[in-house]
User: Fold these one by one.
Assistant:
Number 1:
Amino acid sequence: MNKNVLISGGSVAGPALAYWLHRHGFTPTVVERAPRLRDGGYAVDFRGEALDVLDRMGLLDAVRALDTEMGDAAMVDAEGRRYATLPAAVFAGDLEVLKGDLTRLLYEATREHTEYVFGDSIASLEEDGDGVLVAFEHGAPRRFGLVVGADGLHSKTRALAFGPEERYLRHLGIHTAIFNLDNYLGLENTGLLYSVPGKAANIFTARANTEARAAFHFAADGLRYDRRDTAAHKRIVAERFAGEGWEVPRLLAEMDAAEEFFFDSNAQVEMDTWAAGRVVLLGDAAACAAPTSGRGTSQALIGAYVLAGELGTSGGDHTAAFAAYEEHMRGYVAEHQALGREGAERFFMPAPTQEVLDMLAANAPENTRTEPVRLQDYGV
Ligand SMILES: Cc1cc2nc3c(=O)[nH]c(=O)nc-3n(C[C@H](O)[C@H](O)[C@H](O)COP(=O)(O)OP(=O)(O)OC[C@H]3O[C@@H](n4cnc5c(N)ncnc54)[C@H](O)[C@@H]3O)c2cc1C
């Protein structure tokens, strides 16, 4: 029965886990709340051993083919004058791709041996001696041997198995909105960034300069709003950025019309344990390090590899497997979370000088300093 695993969340951690669970002889089912695969989205990057995991999955070349090939960006003032260069090394990692492109690739690599259920969510979990009875918001109830919450920062699985998210989220005082738009400035493999105290706006090219992504970031503590009310999110951003210079008025108009829109607090997840009985958490659901760490995708991929490997070699003892997974990941995650907090502290550098930006670039290798997680060979 333990071979039958439900994974909540079909973004990065979920499909990556499905891939490795199948390699270890499990039967994964992924339930994803979104009605279909999410294409595009913002750019995410990979560091260190995550590239090794992609290689072990046979996907490294395919991911490299999706590289955004982002070059250096420019800092601009309120009149649009470029006053400094922001080296790509500061923000693009070892390899950068659009998150939706990565999700599609992982989906294609797993769909043959994974049941994907889109447009649904776990509604309740009831564990007994040999499994978990799972009720869904739409589908009929089903039994699984194990349940993995890979459903992100606001994990429903975590709420059901461990309690409300307020217990576990540490907000870093930054809110971010990101949306798709045309590359109306005709930029080529680059971005422009406007930064004033407590606020920043940027635009970056995407998909070989045929599209762009823009973002607004602002400092805010204790902001209250309905997480599902997109119109309210857009209003909050518009109010914060009213009267700002550069392309901000045009970007606000573009945001208003944008269908692909993301808005959230930059937060971390801190938990004493990621396992409760037959339920375990993975990726951002377990230990979000925040976008300011630049490590979330790598952490999700490596965590999936380790969790599946430990389950595959545990001889059916999920409690021992979950404990070993945590032991392997804890130090690595702690480093990422420290990076996330440091990144948040220096996020709103007002008009940073070229000297400071060059120093950040020079330190970029140091930013990849995280203690490498030793990728064990799990024999598949
Ligand atoms: C603006 C931004 C920029 C980032 N930049 C980087 C970067 O440069 N480098 C980097 O490494 N990381 C970056 N990250 C972080 C990275 O996106 C995450 O760490 C990574 O996607 C975590 O993957 P995940 O699969 O754990 O969670 P997520 O990608 O959050 O996926 C969770 C999935 O679960 C689904 N879901 C949610 N609730 C339910 C439910 N009830 N039932 C079923 N499914 C559900 C969601 O729809 C989603 O598909 C960034 C994040 C943000 C927000």
Number 2:
Amino acid sequence: MKRFFPWIVGLFLLVINLPAQAGTTFESVKARGVLVCGVHTGLGGFGAPDAKGEWAGLDVDVCRAVASAVFGDAKKVRFVPLSAQQRLTALQSGEVDLLSRNTTWTMTRDAGSGLLFSAVNFYDGQGFLVARKLGVKNAKDLNGATICVQTGTTTELNLADFARANRLDLKPVTIESFEESVGAFMSGRCDALTSDGSQLAAIRANQAANPDDYVILPERISKEPLATAVRQGDDQWFNLVKWTFFAMVEAEERGVTSANVDEMAKSADPNLQRLLGVSGGLGKSLGVDDKWAYNLIKQVGNYGESYERNVGKKSKLQLDRGLNELWSKGGLMYAMPLR
Ligand SMILES: N[C@@H](CCC(=O)N[C@@H](CS)C(=O)NCC(=O)O)C(=O)O
């Protein structure tokens, strides 16, 4: 019996680990008929209910694009709002199929917590928000200041590293909830609030009584590549999520939009025919219909359309494309070849 004991334990461990392996997410999503997507608790431009109560945002669009690729229907998504603290556990435990929520791709999260990051949908960096009346012009002027920062984020460690590297005395005020940290800052409990630049822009635009009373300091003290993530050991699902995002970028690179996709499908260009599933389609390798990319472009739009609608110059956030511009226009957005 003693001899068999390690085998029995091994078998038991294998069985309890099974749901997180063997590429089962794709099957369970299909069987359920709806994608369960982990998003922000409410960050206008990235993930928040709009005026009609419908989830909208750059991260939300990735969820909808994946649903379009799987079901041909962008509406087949159930959104699960997750706080900074909850998000990684929610994905690890299988509560959500996909995490699309301002989450920085770091080595520890990617290699050390059973997760895999699939594609960066927003290149960001950490900054500081201060009240204009404070007269602070750059981050180095913050010596001696109190800084509101939320726990469970990359932000906490970056702040400590920045202070140490620059011999600054920055006093972190660590707060567990998003609302509370924003509230603490707005009520003057901290001199500055630190977070990803995009989040500061969203907080300033959506949560300040008068946005002009606040300024975002020019420095970015870290790299925050915000990316979608899935569980490790689920290769087919990982591929589907990754290539869905690349299809959004590829569509922008090739000038295909939600408005012209039907026209573009008539093109003689083999690249467009492949992308839009007219001939030599690419769906099979992902286990989906050859019209997967056509569907997501038609229903959600290309990356540039999603960017402009949610966070771009004409949106409330008014963010420049910056690093999120296509590589061919000086940015970092580059789709791996869809062929
Ligand atoms: N990108 C950073 C920060 C993202 C983040 O979660 N930021 C906080 C502070 S603004 C947040 O979104 N909190 C919302 C919540 O917990 O509901 C990370 O991945 O750790």
